[in-house]
Amino acid sequence: MNNKFFPANFMFIIMMIMGTIMFLSSSHWLMMWMGLELNLMGILPLMNIKSKNFEIESSMKYFIIQSMSSSLFISSSIFMYMSSISMFSMFNNSLFSPIMIISLLIKLGSAPFHFWLPSMCKQMSWLMLFLILTWQKLAPLFMLSFINFNYIIMILSAFMSSILGSIQAINQSSLQLIMVYSSISHLGWMLPICFINNFLMFNYLLIYTIIILPMFITFSMKSTFFTYSLTEQNMYMNKENIFTMMLILSLAGIPPTLGFLSKLMVLNSLLNMNMILLSLLLFIGTLISLYFYLNLMMLLMIKSFFMFKTNKMMTNMKSIMCFNMLGTIIFIPMLLYAMNILNKS
Predict the structure, then answer these.
(1) Is residue 158 within 8 Å of 101, Cβ to Cβ?
(2) pTM higher than the cut 0.70
């Protein structure tokens, strides 16, 4: 299979989407597991479109890890079903309930089960990396939100993801690895909110997707894979660099950008639940991640330095700030509705 369009590619995309719809619309653990497997069968051929050696290696790593976690999930489900009433209510504190949570955390690539994710993603295309970091996180996050026991495992994983994802991204020269570790750090914010409010978790994932999609498209069009390539002199990319800089600031969660709003709603919900220590640790992880975000900002600013000497500089900056503020205003009613009405009792 090459890079051109084939009907089989369209079939695999439909299979991936149908698998996601299956586990989102099901209340049965076995049907959720079938949706996960259908989703996996759909995305694996898409990872091998160009049939290069590193793509085959990455897809095999992904297949082995996902198959192992799916096996752990269905095995723990069966054993929990044996000590429960039905497959609809397998909520107990048996030995196998932590195994179910750990299997979903492995699927997510959450710390300390994240070591497979950077080694697999460092040679991927930007489009496939986008799917792995956004679409493939949807199923395990929603399945974790249905589990009403062993919160301590998810809280510990959230803390470790926020800290380790930020620390390991420092001094990385590969943009793909930086984005992967950044995703692990953001996953630390999604995990504690997924068992408090599903709607806020979905909004956080949606805002994260909106931020990284134009950034990944820009990197893919310019074939940018390393940080030093950001400083290459190209006078036609200077306007695009200004927008990329604002996206990086939004990803870092600096106000008044859209990424700040997503972190603010998570902090508000955690403080309402009296999780003050976890909120402080997540905030410390975000402060550590500011180092490599601002490093990327500096590289892009060096490349676009003469943009600040033009008369249109203030107009460009005002338009970008208005865009970020507009995005914030659009999401505020949704988040207020979620925080006030959809909290779990």
Answers:
(1) no
(2) yes
344 pLDDT more than 50? no
Closest CA to 34 of 74, 93, 6: 74
Question: Identity (one letter) of the amino acid at 312?
Answer: K
Going by the DSSP 8-state scheme, the letter that residue 237 receives in this structure is: G
Amino acid at 16: M
The pair of structure tokens assigned to 52 is 């290069």
For the chain, the helix, strand and coil percentages under 3-state DSSP, each to the nearest 5: 75, 0, 20
The residue ranges of every structural domain in the chain are: 7-343
Would you state the pLDDT for residue 77? 82
Q: State the average pLDDT over residues 14-19.
A: 89
Q: Which structure tokens are listed for 6?
A: 């084939």
- Which of 210, 340, 183 is CA-nearest to residue 265? 340
Contact assessment for residue 35 and residue 26, using Cβ atoms and an 8 Å cutoff: yes
| Average pLDDT score, the chain | 80
What six digits make up the tokens of 271? 């403080």
Within 10 A of 27 (CB to CB), how many other CB atoms are there? Answer: 9
Judged by average pLDDT, the poorest of 7-16, 160-169, 233-242 is 233-242
Contact, 179 vs 129, CB < 8 A? yes
Kindly give the residue spans of alpha helices, DSSP state H, lying in 95-228.
Answer: 97-108, 116-121, 126-133, 135-145, 151-169, 175-194, 198-221
Burial 245-279 (b: 16+ CB within 10 A, else e): bbbbbbbbbbeebbbbbbbebbbebbeebebeebb
Q: What CA–CA distance (Å, rounded) separates 73 from 68?
A: 9
* Distance (Å, whole) CA 194 – CA 202: 8
